[in-house]
Design brief:
Elements lengths: L2 E5 L2 E3 L5 E8 L7 E7 L6 E6 L5 E3 L7 E6 L4 E6 L8 E9 L4 E4 L3 E5 L2
Parallel strand pairs: 2-11
Antiparallel strand pairs: 1-3, 3-8, 4-5, 4-9, 5-6, 7-8, 9-10, 9-11
Length: 117
């Protein structure tokens, strides 16, 4: 059974930092592209950042220079370091594990990040 469990969300003031974690089980973590997506209230889910099996990263323009995605294959965990947070970063953040070549994609249940003073 595949499980992706996000943690680290919460309330933070504008300009603050948070680190999200996603622990994976039930998959061969090292061969999956891992990603973080987010969905704000009333909006569609959007890509935040991805990291491939060889640690090539990609991130949305809106978070470049502020967010960093990384992975630890020994711990089956992907991280999202978020700095200089803004109110518009408020959303539920979801972890994704994907292997496009074999049409596999798994999602976590999400963790809420609220940026507010």
């Amino acid at each position: 059974q595949v499980q992706l469990v996000e943690s680290g969300g919460g309330l933070v003031q504008p300009g603050g930092s948070l680190t999200l974690s996603c622990a994976a089980s039930g998959i061969i973590f090292s061969i999956y592209t891992m990603g973080w997506y987010r969905q704000a209230a009333g909006k569609q889910r959007e890509l935040v950042a991805t990291i491939t099996r060889d640690s090539t990263t990609n991130c949305a323009d809106s978070v470049k220079g502020r967010f960093t995605i990384s992975r630890d294959n020994a711990k089956n965990t992907v991280y999202l370091q978020m700095n200089s947070l803004k109110a518009e970063d408020t959303a539920v953040y979801y972890c994704n594990a994907e292997r496009r070549t074999v049409h596999l994609s798994y999602w976590g249940k999400g963790t809420l990040v609220t940026v507010s003073s």
